[in-house]
Amino acid sequence: MERRIVDTTYANQDDSSGNYLQLLEEAERDQKCPFCNLPGDNKLVATTHWWTMIECRWPYENAEVHLILIPNRHIEDIMDVGQNDWGEVNSLIFMAMKIYPTLKIGGGLAVRFGTNSGVTIKHLHFHLIAPVTDEQTGRVIPGKHVNFPIG
């Protein structure tokens, strides 16, 4: 049985550029994980020994900040995230808060795992997201919530 690198079923079909779906289709065809072979056009934010943080090239609607935290080794199961990993993820979050002031106000850390989650890239990764925020109130602008799909 052929190993699935990605699952295009859940790919954002609204990507007008078509680049995201193209990246997934190429990864599947070439059997090369897009996170193990990060294309050079990703904006690197920070890196640690075990993790890399990039800006998401296809941020969710209404996300003022959308970062992807990726383990440098290919893992697919959340049970393979060890104690050292959690420490480095925490360090990356604190680094991101220094770079992106909106994250100091708040945001979310999300991860999908397993076959029923809606994951597209079969390399475990975290999404660090902050919504568009009203500078005066520090709250989400009404109608500008970020929807993180699961399933």
Task: Characterize the structure shown.
- The protein has 151 residues and is α+β, with helices and mostly antiparallel strands.
- It has a domain at 43-131: HIT family, subunit A, CATH 3.30.428.
- The chain has helices spanning 19-30, 83-99, 102-105; strands at residues 44-47, 51-55, 63-71, 108-111, 126-131.
- Strands 1-2-3-5-4 form a five-stranded antiparallel sheet.
- Strand 2 and strand 3 (63-71) form a beta hairpin.
- The longest helix has 17 residues, at 83-99.
- InterPro entries: AP-4-A_phosphorylase, HIT-like_sf.
- This is HIT domain-containing protein.
Secondary-structure blueprint of this entry?
Layout: H1 19-30, E1 44-47, E2 51-55, E3 63-71, H2 83-99, H3 102-105, E4 108-111, E5 126-131
CATH topology value of one domain: HIT family, subunit A
Return the average pLDDT rounded to an integer: 90
Order of helices and strands: HEEEHHEE
Which spans have pLDDT < 50 for at least 5 consecutive residues? none
Number of DSSP helical runs: 3
